[in-house]
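Preliminary data (for renewal application), magnesium ion complex.
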Amino acid sequence: MLSEFDLIKRYFQRDRAPGPNTFLGIGDDCALLSPTPGKVLAISSDMLVEDRHFFAGADPFTLGHKCLAVNLSDLAAMGARPLGFTLALSLPVAEPDWLDAFSRGLFALADAHGCELVGGDTTKGPLNVCITIFGELAPGQALRRDAARAGDDIWISGTLGDARLWLAARRSEVALDAADHAATGQRMHAPTPRVALGRLLAEGGLAHAALDISDGLVGDVKHILAASRVGAVLDVDALPAGPALARQPVGLRRRFAAAGGDDYELCFTAPVAQRDAIVAAGTACGTAVTRVGSITAEPGLCLVDADGAALDLQLAGWDHFSPG
Ligand code: ADP
Ligand code: MG
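Predicted structure:
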């Protein structure tokens, strides 16, 4: 039986020199981080609970990836550069194969972003993974939710709705072929945090407001509208549906792209004058960017179709998958 300390040492404490922003890593009462002088820390926590945010028996490698990905996505939405993270882990049993796969999934993504595990806590209990992530940015460059302005374009990174489509297939609401099933499962279980794009938008002063879409675009964009005291017109037919969702009937396509959930794409607003620079930023980091609407001085969210006609997606009362 692994002791708590053996477990930390074997799976989470790595035998290597700490990165440039870690003064002291795992092993003491606190980790010590060294942010770049003049920068502020960007800090966010996300907790994933079994049977609520992921299914019991979830693949541990992809779970390790996803727990960190959703936290990196928050840094991306602020435009911050990742520094490090802590991991609070509650486990029913210390199962070596599970821990090995979980930590490999976690570190593969951490290393891809130069984001170091600097500490945490480990306890026995129901499976629950809580990560707190630390990033840094110049204070004036943060992509805040209260910074949208009337006349801004609204943009979306990547594609929307394929994670929700996977869930619909799991619930036997739609049938997918094997290829679409695998591709949509990948979107649900292994989202790609848009860290490089968020940084280019913030550091280049290209965007005003941003957030990452976790509960569905239509619900999440309202956080920007409320904080910025503005409204928006969204062209639902301009939303970039995921490749599998694009093959579905138009009604499903519109609903899942507009309000699916688990997309972990960025929604951001930017001045019209930045259109070319934003397309260039998307190209530079290999992430598609799509213009889907505009911010209005008039409050409220208006959904329209490709012809500009108001669209009622009848989302009210519709049970969309909303983690948390
Ligand atoms: P304390 O007694 O102060 O709570 P612990 O004994 O829980 O400290 O942890 C010892 C060291 O291991 C600390 O540096 C802590 O940050 C680190 N640690 C504990 N659990 C984890 C984990 N799951 N991942 C990474 N580091 C961890
Ligand atoms: Mg402790």
